[in-house]
Design brief:
CATH architecture: 3-Layer(bab) Sandwich
Number of helices: 3
Structural class: alpha+beta
Helix content: 25-40%
Radius of gyration: 27 Å
Shape: elongated
CATH class: Alpha Beta
CATH superfamily: minor pseudopilin epsh domain
Oligomer: single chain
Strand content: 25-35%
Largest sheet: 5 strands, antiparallel
Distance between the termini: 58 Å
Length: 196
């Protein structure tokens, strides 16, 4: 017993860290940094994923709405990449270019940030989507709009079957490509870039 007491007193009054304790602390902090730093910097990834989900939701909603209401729906992507809108068309308007002043927008029951509850998404007016852009929307080799007919298929502006197309959603260094298959309009999403 006598021999243990000096040892206990010596350990209790120790000042500083041992090399092993210091090494373990550095290892734990390094692991935490590896795990936390990508998560902290993934704001661009999160907002890009949200924007991608929102546009895909609007595409699918427009497709279902065209079938349910037996009307044409056009999704038009704005030239500056700042968003899109969903228009209600009749058969005589298929080839008419998008005009903001005269467009009749579809109702948007799911998105409270819409333009007066209409399917009109403008990233410049929505603080959730800063630095998001729609890049290279190209359908049927010549336009930046998708038209759904009453069967839910996609058609070209002249009423013929569509050859499909794609566009990209960019958010910082992250990007996703959304493709629409010819005729059916089946949506495929591919992650193009960004940190893993």
């Amino acid at each position: 017993m006598m021999k243990m007491q000096p040892l206990i007193k010596q350990c209790a009054h120790r000042k500083g860290w041992t090399f092993i304790e210091l090494l373990m602390t550095i290892v734990i902090l390094s692991i935490a940094a590896i795990v936390l730093v990508p998560s902290a910097s993934s704001g661009a990834s999160s907002s890009g994923q949200s924007a991608t989900r929102l546009v895909v939701t609007d595409i699918l909603a427009a497709q279902m709405d065209a079938v349910a209401r037996q009307e044409f729906r056009r999704i038009h992507f704005f030239d500056d990449g700042s968003g899109w809108c969903v228009e209600i068309l009749n058969s005589s308007q298929l080839a008419t270019p998008y005009a903001q002043a005269t467009a009749v927008y579809a109702d948007d029951a799911s998105e409270s940030q819409g333009h007066h509850q209409k399917s009109y998404i403008d990233f410049n007016q929505d603080s959730r989507f800063k630095n998001i852009s729609i890049v290279s929307p190209l359908f049927d080799g010549l336009n930046n709009s998708i038209i759904f007919d009453q069967t839910g298929g996609i058609i070209a502006s002249d009423g013929s079957p569509s050859t499909g197309g794609s566009f990209e959603v960019h958010s910082g260094s992250f990007a996703w490509q959304i493709q629409l298959a010819p005729l059916t309009g089946k949506v495929t999403i591919t992650k193009l870039g960004g940190a893993s």
